[in-house]
């Protein structure tokens, strides 16, 4: 489809907004082109250049506006608006006020690092999408004072006369006053895959997209040529109205953003509350104000996961990179997790489920079924009857007249690799293109034959007649009318039947056989075309005369093949509890057939609704319909699609919507996750979407959802991992206040754990592969939070072992050094320093065991595998390198008040790591056992 450059038609390089100047509103129904000329003070010669300049100032340039983009500086500061960053800022101020300047500087740099990481990832994602929509200026041909001129499309104004030819993009809404065999692709506005035939017939009482004499901005000329007078430009076009609807839709926070905000709120309340309690206890115990603030601050810092925000950003960014390798470009980091939460996918048909390549698969001629091989527009494929190959030259010899019929009654053409696209393709109707490709497969040179058998005239296709006729003067002088269209309509017009090169009477039995064959093809999901002809013995050009007493030639079964991997992807989505709803502009029978073929619907009578049905439904009734598992919408408008998405979201669904045209943009913006097509999509659609598919494939969306689920699972894994170390960080302060035990861990050491040793394993968990059953689960419960009861309970369970191992190890070292309960130790005391060093080392050793424990929530590590994620091994090496640097490099050791401990100390530090590991394996075993007995498990 010729959609990639539609945005460039209107110079949609997306400038900053300018005041919207609306054209004069139509107050009368126009009945002729002369009234149009009069209304816009123009003629079939166009307007003068001076008048065009004047109108350009009045109406403004012909392009689509978008919301003003946020300045890069404010985007950076936007990264520190979250509550986690504000909590750290509070900690920075408190540290500064009590004179702990090194600590204040350290925490402040945490804020900067977190913001920088998030900003870089968002900026990279945005730039990747900007690269997708880089376009060259678009030009249009107009008549200015009777002279043809080539101007920038953004300079087209109302009153201009457009010169439109095959393949041209249409830059503005305009009325035709000349048209020859002209058809237009309206897919970007209506979603229809079939071109619309254009004529000079005025039809003001119907929607503009249906008017025969009107062409609209954002569409393209498929066949023929014409001239049209512009009546609307820019935001005043139908294209612009849809874009305006898109701009009015506000961005909503993603589930991940909501989750992080909730997590920060919970953590803030707990951290501040506990810190305040410790502050009060300190005052009650008559500690100095400095010590009281310091300990309160230590508790506060211990309970805040300083590295969580940066780790989440990096984990999402890694998800973006992995999705990009799978041909899905993510614009917003939070969209990665949103995909994983998806419960409903609203998808188009053409190009997403199907290949958007019409292909002839079956031909029925002379009571013979002929199978046609090959897929797409490349003219390669064999003919066969009952599995036996029919050589191309034999087919061409016996069915030459049939090949002439399907090639001559046709306004499309096949693109050869030597032509501009450098690949096989078609220009014009995909259906007609499929017929030409089939003729090409038989070795029929339709271009040369068409030169020898000139077309005399054409009777264009109409929905009333459901057929098209092309009359040709053959090279032998005979005139033949070739007819194609709806099989049943054509069969009713036929008196004879073409069989073995002869014309025989078409009796009742043969008619019934042809209708049965038509139904058989239709049931297989084929679009069936009837082919007939008539030898002309009179000069009448009336359709009722030319299209009578026909000789029926055959049936052609055409399919837009479903993508090979779509059926499997749909099955995978259903197993994952995701509903898929088809929303298309195509006919309901076509939509239903394809939906059934790919497994989207499995019942014989699925719910199929048209735009007309939706128009007659109120929101309550439609909401009830939307609860159906198997649902197909056909012939829908942009407003209908937006309405469907809105109601689904009101029902609490997380909705992903696919789209490629301008008509899809409002729904893409409204959806939780808008998915634009990278190949066939317009720039307006890509701008509105959160994700762009580089292969336009539904299967890619399902793969992206799997990746999104994995990202969410991994975030929970490293959140559990991070929170586990918070417990051994907190308990030394509790022990100090309650039991007067010397502080076993310093605040600066807590920051070292949270921002140095814990970060690398967290990032490694962030790239953990999806667990085998990830797409066998239902979408996650929206009440299941990142920092919820499950995570807190599990982290506390693991944290108890870390606390006992670290605090117990510290006490053991002190006792071995001669400490007695009640003694006061100075920070300079080597025994004290050795003890707090063991505390830090024990936390890190236990976290090494913990990273393996957190690789899965329920599955045993012995099943998942210790070494399938190599990044965890590198992270552990990094942890050990950091702790050794802290302990054994003198100048670093002095900063963190460490002590060069020996082998016995390391043995003490490591002693509880195996206990933690096997305790967690035992917990998982119990959980799996209870699940097999269908007991709901909370941890």
Give structural attributes.
939 residues, alpha+beta, 37 helices, Calcium-transporting ATPase, cytoplasmic domain N, Rossmann fold, 11-stranded mixed sheet, Calcium-transporting ATPase, cytoplasmic transduction domain A, 4 domains, 28 strands
Describe the protein's topology.
Blueprint: H1 6-9, H2 33-39, H3 49-59, H4 72-78, H5 83-97, H6 101-132, E1 139-144, E2 147-152, E3 161-165, E4 173-185, H7 187-190, E5 196-197, E6 214-215, E7 220-232, H8 238-247, H9 255-284, H10 289-303, H11 308-325, E8 328-330, H12 334-340, E9 344-347, E10 359-365, E11 368-372, E12 383-385, E13 388-390, H13 392-398, H14 400-408, E14 413-415, E15 425-427, H15 430-441, H16 446-452, E16 454-462, E17 467-473, E18 479-485, H17 487-493, E19 494-499, E20 502-505, H18 508-523, E21 527-535, H19 543-546, E22 550-559, H20 566-575, E23 579-583, H21 588-597, E24 607-610, H22 611-616, H23 619-625, E25 631-634, H24 638-650, E26 655-659, H25 665-670, E27 673-677, H26 683-688, E28 691-693, H27 698-724, H28 726-739, H29 747-757, H30 759-766, H31 789-816, H32 830-853, H33 861-864, H34 870-888, H35 890-895, H36 903-910, H37 913-932
Parallel strand pairs: 9-23, 9-26, 19-22, 23-25, 24-25, 26-27, 27-28
Antiparallel strand pairs: 1-2, 1-3, 3-7, 4-5, 4-6, 4-7, 8-28, 10-11, 10-22, 11-12, 12-13, 14-15, 16-17, 17-18, 18-21, 19-20, 21-22
Helix pairs in contact: 4-6, 5-6, 5-10, 6-11, 6-29, 9-10, 10-28, 11-27, 11-30, 12-27, 14-15, 17-18, 20-27, 27-30, 27-31, 28-31, 30-34, 31-32, 31-36, 31-37, 32-34, 32-36, 32-37
């Amino acid at each position: 489809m010729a959609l990639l450059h539609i945005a460039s038609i209107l110079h949609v390089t997306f400038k900053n907004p300018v005041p919207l100047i609306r054209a004069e509103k139509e107050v009368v129904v126009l009945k002729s082109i002369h009234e149009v000329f009069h209304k816009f003070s123009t003629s079939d010669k166009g307007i003068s250049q001076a008048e065009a300049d004047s109108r350009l100032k009045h109406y403004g340039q012909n392009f689509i506006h978008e919301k003003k983009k946020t300045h890069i500086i404010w985007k950076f500061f936007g990264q520190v608006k979250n509550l986690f960053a504000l909590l750290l800022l509070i900690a920075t101020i408190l540290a500064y006020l009590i004179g702990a300047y090194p600590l204040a500087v350290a925490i402040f740099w945490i804020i900067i690092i977190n913001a920088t990481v998030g900003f870089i990832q968002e900026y990279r994602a945005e730039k990747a999408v900007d690269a997708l929509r880089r376009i060259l200026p678009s030009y249009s041909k107009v008549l200015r004072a009777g002279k043809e001129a080539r101007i920038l499309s953004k300079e087209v104004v109302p009153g201009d006369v457009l010169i439109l030819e095959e393949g041209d993009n249409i830059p503005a809404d305009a009325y035709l006053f000349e048209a020859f065999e002209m058809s237009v692709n309206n897919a970007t506005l209506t979603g229809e895959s079939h071109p619309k035939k254009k004529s000079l017939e005025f039809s003001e009482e119907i929607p503009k997209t249906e008017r025969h004499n009107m062409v609209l901005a954002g569409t393209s000329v498929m066949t023929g040529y014409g001239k049209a007078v512009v009546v609307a430009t820019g935001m005043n076009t139908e294209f612009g109205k849809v874009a305006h609807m898109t701009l009015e839709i506000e961005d909503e926070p993603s589930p991940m953003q909501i989750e992080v905000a909730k997590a920060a709120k919970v953590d803030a309340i707990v951290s501040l509350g506990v810190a305040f309690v410790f502050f009060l206890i300190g005052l009650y115990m008559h500690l100095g104000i400095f010590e009281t603030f310091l300990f309160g601050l230590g508790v506060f810092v211990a309970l805040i996961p300083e590295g969580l925000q940066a780790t989440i950003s990096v984990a999402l960014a890694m998800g973006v990179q992995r999705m990009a390798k799978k041909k899905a470009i993510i614009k917003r980091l939070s969209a990665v997790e949103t995909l994983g939460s998806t419960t409903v996918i609203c998808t188009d048909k053409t190009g997403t489920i199907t290949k958007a390549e019409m292909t002839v698969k079956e031909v029925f001629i002379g009571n013979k079924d002929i199978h046609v091989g090959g897929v797409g527009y490349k003219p390669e494929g064999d003919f066969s009857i009952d599995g036996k190959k029919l050589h191309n030259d034999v087919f061409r010899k016996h069915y030459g007249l049939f090949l002439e019929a399907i090639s001559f009654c046709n306004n499309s053409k096949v693109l050869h690799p030597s032509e501009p696209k450098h690949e096989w393709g078609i220009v014009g109707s995909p259906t007609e293109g499929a017929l030409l490709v089939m003729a090409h497969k038989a070795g029929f040179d339709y271009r040369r034959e068409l030169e020898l058998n000139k077309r005399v005239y054409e009777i264009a296709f109409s929905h009333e007649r459901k057929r098209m006729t092309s009359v040709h003067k053959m090279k032998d002088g005979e005139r033949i009318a070739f007819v194609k269209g709806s099989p049943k309509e054509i069969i009713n017009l036929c008196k004879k039947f073409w069989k073995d090169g002869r014309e025989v009477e078409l009796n009742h039995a043969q008619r019934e056989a042809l209708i049965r064959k038509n139904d058989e093809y239709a049931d297989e999901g084929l679009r069936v075309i009837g082919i007939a002809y008539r030898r002309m013995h009179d000069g009448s050009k009336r359709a009722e005369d030319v299209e009578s007493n026909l000789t029926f030639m055959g049936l052609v079964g055409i399919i837009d093949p479903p993508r090979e991997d779509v059926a499997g992807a749909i099955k995978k989505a259903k197993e994952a509890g995701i509903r898929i709803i088809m929303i298309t502009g195509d006919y309901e029978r076509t939509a239903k057939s394809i939906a059934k073929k790919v497994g989207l619907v499995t019942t014989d009578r699925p719910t199929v609704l048209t735009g007309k049905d939706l128009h007659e439904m109120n929101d309550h009734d439609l909401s009830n319909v939307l609860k159906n598992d198997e649902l197909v919408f056909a012939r829908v408008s942009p407003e209908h699609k937006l309405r469907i998405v809105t109601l689904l979201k009101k029902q609490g669904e997380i909705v992903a919507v696919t789209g490629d045209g301008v008509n899809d943009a409002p729904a893409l913006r409204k959806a939780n996750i808008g998915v634009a097509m990278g190949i066939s999509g317009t720039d307006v659609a890509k701008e509105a979407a959160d994700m762009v598919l580089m292969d336009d494939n539904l299967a890619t969306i399902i793969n992206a959802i799997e990746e999104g689920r994995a990202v969410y699972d991994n975030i929970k894994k490293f959140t559990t991992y991070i929170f586990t170390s918070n417990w051994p960080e907190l308990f030394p302060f509790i022990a100090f206040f309650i039991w007067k035990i010397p502080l076993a861990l310093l605040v600066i050491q807590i920051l070292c754990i949270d921002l140095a040793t814990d970060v690398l394993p967290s990032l490694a968990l962030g790239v953990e592969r999806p667990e085998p059953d990830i797409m066998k689960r239902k979408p996650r419960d929206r009440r299941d939070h990142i920092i919820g009861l499950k995570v807190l309970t599990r982290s506390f369970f693991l944290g108890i072992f870390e606390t006992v191992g670290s605090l117990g190890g510290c006490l053991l070292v002190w006792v071995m050094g001669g400490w007695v309960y009640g003694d006061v130790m100075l920070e300079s005391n080597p025994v004290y320093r050795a003890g707090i060093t063991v505390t830090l080392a024990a936390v890190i050793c236990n976290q090494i065991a913990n990273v393996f424990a957190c690789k899965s929530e329920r599955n045993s590590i012995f099943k998942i595998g210790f070494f399938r994620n190599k990044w965890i091994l590198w992270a552990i090496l990094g942890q050990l390198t950091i702790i050794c640097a802290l302990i054994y490099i003198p100048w670093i050791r002095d900063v963190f008040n460490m002590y060069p401990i020996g082998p016995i100390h390391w043995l003490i530090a490591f002693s509880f790591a195996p206990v933690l590991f096997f305790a967690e394996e035992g917990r998982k075993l119990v959980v799996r056992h209870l699940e097999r007995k269908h007991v709901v498990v909370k941890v």
